[in-house]
Amino acid sequence: xxxxxxxxxxxxxxxxxxxxxxxxQRRILAWLLPLLFFGLVGxxxxxxxxxxxxxxxxxxxxxxxxxxxxxxxxxxxxxxxxGAAASMAETNNHNGIGSRVTINPGTYRESVSxxxxxxxxxxxxTFEAATNGTVIVSGGVVYTGWSKYSGNNSIYTTSWxxxxxxxxxxxxxxxxxxxxxxxxxxxxxxxxLTEVMSLVQMVEGTFYVDESTxxxxxxxxxxxxxxxxxxxxxxxxSVFSISQKNNIVVRGLVFQYANSCRGxxxxxxxxxxxxxxxxxxxxxxxxxxxxxxxxxxTYFTVENxxxxxxxxxxxxxxxxxxxLWQTDTTSYNNWRGAQGAYYACNVAGLHGWEAHDDTxxxxxxxxxxxxxxxxxxxxxxxxxxxxxxxxxxxxxxFVEKDPGPxxxxxxxxxxxxxxxxxxxxxxxxxxxxxxANGVLMNNLPNQITVIGxxxxxxxxxxVTGATTNLITKDFTNTSNIIQGNNxxxxxxxxxxxNGSDWTDFQTTLNSSKNTWxxxxxxxxxxxxxxxxxxxxxxxxxxxxxTGQDSNSSFKQPSGSPGTTCSLIPVGADYxxxxxxxxxxxxxxxxxxxYTLAITxxxxxxxxxxxxxxxxxxxxxxxxxxxxxxxxxGTSTLTVTAGAKTAPGTYTITVIANSGSITRTxxxxxxxx
Length: 672
Description:
Layout: H1 28-38, E1 56-62, H2 82-94, E2 98-103, E3 106-109, E4 112-115, E5 125-129, E6 135-138, E7 140-143, E8 147-149, E9 152-159, E10 186-188, E11 191-192, E12 194-195, E13 206-210, E14 215-219, E15 231-234, E16 240-243, E17 246-251, E18 253-256, E19 265-270, E20 274-279, E21 282-284, E22 289-303, E23 306-308, E24 315-326, E25 329-331, H3 335-339, E26 348-361, E27 364-366, E28 371-376, E29 380-385, E30 388-390, E31 395-400, E32 406-409, E33 412-416, E34 423-428, E35 433-436, E36 439-443, E37 446-451, E38 457-460, E39 467-470, E40 476-478, E41 481-483, E42 490-493, H4 500-508, E43 510-512, E44 515-517, E45 526-528, E46 535-537, H5 539-546, E47 553-554, E48 573-578, E49 582-585, E50 590-601, E51 606-612, E52 620-625, E53 628-630, E54 633-641, E55 648-658, E56 661-671
């Protein structure tokens, strides 16, 4: 579904991203020198950044421990903040001097902003860690003065004056529950806690902010000494931003604890920026998106970088051209959305919207509580190689309303087996997708799924303004291993796009040299809409219905093609998810059921489930069966609206606890 990203906002009725145009006045000397000696800096002939760092002749040093912002910024007399170094580097740039900012190890609690000036020249600026991974740019503030709460000696409290309330709803997406519109984050000795919405919901590993009394309550992991612990509260919505700038390099930095609202990012690039390079950076434990590139940005590279444990998408891009994503990882994202049973709209490990001329090489996309990669509307000329999309909640790759072409080479899409999974590769009204030399294995409910709107969906190209009606056709599927691992896993499904939609798909399909296999379902692993909707075919019937795969086989693949997908989560954790975010019941004894699931991530143990939001509503009752789950499994939440239950919409929160690991999910019930 279409949705906003950063400041790039899509409404329900139109596609719109603000496009900023400017005429930059450059000093003649600063513009001519790069032309004379190094060629046209900033004008690219290929899809990636190409920053000439050899033009950096000024060296600025930063040290948070020994520096002072009144120092000259030399190695012996460094600056204290990255912001001061950025200001000095921009002054150099205006004077025709390129700068390299070297940042010494430490935690820098600040927000760095690079914005356009009419004095900007094409000279580059690099921000790099003296040692990769040792520089943390943090939106967190250290909180002290903790005292035990009189009602529970395991809970500690201190004053809280940041009454942010709830973030604004993203109007182009389904309703977002209160918990996912909060900005508060707390980390104790580097371990983030789970936010709850009331004091009675608190168990070990949680925190609660009471804005009415200006207090925060924390229940840290057992054994924590709060008098010596480092307790950090996310307090800055942005930790690094680039707007309408060119020739910027960011290398070896860690960005964390930004309290951005949903749809915004800890680190952003926007406003007609160009020639931007992120190299060996980490975007982790932020309340919303990790890195967002948009509005529009051209010629950028993100390489050797990681986005993980962000509350929204790990990587986002909107209205970009000529981007390169190379050897990146995006994992464990959308934990904040998952608290509100929100897994799909504007969220993925990588969410690409209106990206043109993008290249992705060797990206690992795993364990996201959302789609792995979602190419969501008007993505054009996407070329990929070596994507490994494994064990995400919803699907491996979702291609939706994209003119294409989208090329997927050497792609692994595996192990999407949750009760919310919608398939390995999902195509929705998207022509020109090609899949070659890949492995699709162990995905529910199908390895390849074609869905959409009969007759097509109209999409407007953000670059040309041309509108095209999109149907799924010209699908190329060659030299792939496509395997279901049990009787519940189909190989291909297009169950209802019949008539001209099926004719256009079938007559333009190129499927050959594939190995199809499901040892537990050889009679009906293919579902097609001919001669009637939902027809179940075996392999020979599939060949007859499509006229394809004459040189393919239905047999067990040789070797162990799924080994590459055998990714092991880092650390021990689990998900609690639910199959419905909102159900409706009638007062007077009507009941509804929600199915909860515990998914372990390198976790073994007993998860105990409790409820909040039932006893507070007159006439409402509920049961959990079972009320505890060992390692993995499901539980049925049954909610009954009694005769005295007033009409309205009510929030019910399920709290899952196992030792210091607590996760929550909230659902809504509308009573008529």
